[in-house]
Amino acid sequence: MMAAGSFRSGFVAVVGRPNTGKSTLVNALVGEKVSIVTSRPQTTRHRILGIRSRSDSQVVFVDTPGLHGNARKLINRTMNRAAASSLADADVVLFVIEASGWRAADEHVLQRLSRVAAPMILVVNKADLVRPRSKMLPLLQAVQARQLFAEIVPVSALESENLERLMELILARLPAGERFYPEDMKTDRGRDFRIGEILREKLMAALEREVPYGLAVEIGAVEDGERLASIDAQIWVAKESQRPIVLGRGGERLKAIGQAARLDLEAFLGKKVFLQTHVKVRRNWADDARALRQFGYEDES
After folding, report:
1. How crowded is the C-beta side of 69, counted as CA atoms within 13 Å?
2. What is the pLDDT of residues 143-192, one digit of tens each?
3. Could you tell me whether strands 92-98 and 48-54 are parallel, antiparallel, or unpaired per DSSP bridges?
């Protein structure tokens, strides 16, 4: 029997500059893919909760968009706001950097964290890419000398290296409490959102450099039958010139993207999927507050 007051629960904000592997880390800690992952920066655009439940604890990880120093478009400012708002209620903050070294963009994030009261653990991710490991020593010594972090933990989220140690350090800093969510719940995001993210992941992975950041996915009708799910999806681009890039010659590129998405969707939904996609233009939607609300982004105001 568990001792009274021994159950721990709390919110852990996962922050950092774009492309440090925050979503890969959250997925690995939760034990399920709750956030999409690509090699491109700014893949995560929304605040997403990943929930890890055990008999003695519930840890709610808050996966956030990467904090931008140069947020020119409204979508970037909205993403910054989503990331910053997750810090207000955090019991612990995981500040994720890359093991390859400290960058100016990391310094910008650290400045944003200067007023955070919660204990901050520096997670040095992608340690598997540094060979020999001794090459990390100057970075680890430099960040330790700053005396800003409760703990400094090198990990590889991709290889699940040192994650149990990280979990021990997190749990030691969480308060006694009760579950916030049902034990079998892995994320706060609903079915349609996750369907749209799976499609956006495949689009971002397949398309040329300038296109992914002008993409939005909007899920229309979903007819969820016993053996077949029929999904109608709108793919929005910001410029007329991006539409033929998404389609490819004779629509072949979009067809291949749709096939890749369908495989993941069938695994997610547990049934066959008929996916219908349409590519439409909404000029400069990333600077349009009304469009951002339509596409599910939190209002900046």
Report:
1. 11
2. 999 999 999 999 999 999 999 999 999 999 999 999 999 999 999 999 99
3. unpaired
Which helix (H) or strand (E) is 131 found in, with range?
none
**Whether the predicted model's global pTM rises above the 0.85 cut:** yes
Name the token pair of 301: 């105001």
178 HSE (CA, 13 A, CB side): 1
Contacts of 108 (CB under 8 A, 6+ apart): 17, 67, 69
Residue 208, pLDDT above cutoff 80: no
Look at residue 101 and give its three-state secondary structure: coil
Which residues contact residue 111 at a Cβ distance below 8 angstroms, ignoring those fewer than 6 apart? none
Comparing C-alpha atoms, which of 211, 213, 233 is closest to residue 222?
A: 233
Residue 229 in tokens: 């799910």
**Greatest Cα-to-Cα distance within the chain, rounded to the nearest angstrom:** 65
